[in-house]
From TrEMBL:
UniProt entry tagged with the keyword Flavoprotein: no
Record keywords: Hydrolase
Domain AB hydrolase-1: 88-350
Domain of life: Eukaryota
Species, as recorded: Lupinus albus (White lupine)
Descriptive protein name: Putative alpha/Beta hydrolase
PANTHER family xrefs: AB HYDROLASE-1 DOMAIN-CONTAINING PROTEIN, HYDROLASE, ALPHA/BETA FOLD FAMILY PROTEIN, EXPRESSED-RELATED
């Protein structure tokens, strides 16, 4: 369409006398400006439908107010926090919410009571009923976790457990609030291919293990974040497998786990109810852009062996290549690395694993 209009204008420009040419230049300029305005409009995300705002979703659960006025919605699991011995903050995955505290959901009640386990999960920024934070960084996310813990009176030290994209937030906690941590567990944490310490041959190899469409989506997050909304919303070509729920990124074990899941459409719509741009799309941008620090440069947060940092990963994870996780474990000898044979990205959903993961952290 645009090419046709340009061609007609060009022909007109060549054959008509000067006065027409001037008019044509004006028309072209107007069309160009109009086109750019339309293009710009098309790639702008609509503003988020903030919870509690007129026409926005209602507030149905408890929230705390953060230092900059944002709210963070949370949900408590396990024994009451007043009597708990072990306090854990759980950080959820991409496209998920506080209701999907996968570690809390499958814990045997006996274990919860025996160890006095309390778990709080929260809607990450822009998800569910937590306000969006367009300025979020690894640091601001860690400070949100700290504020949540302090607001709930969890004491000087607490555990953090993060799954998948939530694992990235755990790296931020290890960097910015290590003095507040009683221990940390990363479950299939998403890796950023641009962390500078990765040898480039290794990160390139891992990058190419992703389906082509995901290589592109990750490139957009990293290099062209302003294009993200358009890229992931358009229907002309495939976008991110994760955003599209493409089964190509799941291992046989993952597919088996998915086949047994009972989808809860209420929770699925709750996750994105404020809009996709400040929930899942922002998550991709924050995860894959250039970071303020390199997790591979971190120091041991527990130099006197007071506690441990555990990292669990499946050797058949098709979303987050295991070769990068192995490199991290090898580079940071203080990480307790647990590689699960035959496991994909969804292993925390396997019935008995949350108990193993929790016991390894709390009793290790
Ligand atoms: C990357 O290069 C280094 C040094 O040349 C080499 O030791 C390593 O095996 C290479 N890794 C891969 C995955 O090719």
């Amino acid at each position: 369409m645009l090419i046709k209009i340009s061609a007609i204008l060009l022909v007109g420009f060549l054959v008509f006398p000067l006065s027409y040419k001037e008019m044509l230049i004006k028309i072209s300029a107007i069309l160009l400006v109009g086109f750019l305005a339309l293009a710009y409009e098309a790639i702008q995300p609509p503003p988020p439908r903030t919870c509690g705002s007129p026409g926005g979703p209602p507030i149905t659960g408890p929230r705390i107010k953060l230092r900059d006025g944002r709210h963070l919605a949370y949900k408590e699991h396990g024994v009451p926090r007043e009597v708990a011995n072990k306090k854990i903050v759980f950080i959820h995955a991409f496209g998920s919410c506080k209701h999907d505290a996968v570690i809390a959901l499958n814990l045997p009640q006996g274990l919860v009571e025996e160890l006095g386990i309390y778990i709080v999960s929260f809607d990450r920024q822009g998800y569910g009923e937590s306000d969006p934070d367009p300025h979020r960084t690894a640091k601001s996310i860690a400070l949100d976790v700290e504020e949540l813990a302090d607001n709930l009176g969890l004491g000087p030290k607490f555990y953090v457990i993060g799954y998948s994209m939530g694992g990235q937030s755990v790296w931020g906690c290890l960097k910015y609030i290590p003095h507040r941590l009683a221990g940390a567990t990363l479950l299939a944490p998403v890796v950023n291919y641009w962390w500078p310490s990765f040898p480039s041959n290794l990160s390139t190899m891992a990058y190419k293990l992703q389906p082509k469409q995901d290589q592109w989506a990750v490139r957009v997050f990293h290099y062209l974040p302003w294009l993200t909304y358009w890229w992931l919303s358009q229907k002309w070509f495939p976008t991110s497998s994760v955003v599209e729920n493409n089964p190509a990124v799941f291992s046989p074990q993952d597919l088996q786990i998915i086949s047994k899941m009972v989808p809860n459409s209420d929770i699925q719509s709750y996750v994105r109810q404020q809009g996709v741009s400040e929930s899942i799309f922002r998550d991709g941008i924050v995860g894959f852009r250039t970071w303020e620090f390199d997790p591979l440069d971190l120091d041991n947060p527990f130099p006197n062996n007071e506690s441990q940092v555990h990292l669990w990963h499946g050797d058949d994870d098709r979303l987050v290549p295991v070769i990068l996780q192995r490199y991290i474990a090898q580079t940071l000898p203080w990480i307790q690395y647990h590689e699960l044979k035959g496991a994909g990205h969804l292993f925390p959903h396997i019935q008995e694993l949350p108990a193993d993961i929790i016991k390894t952290q709390l009793l290790g």
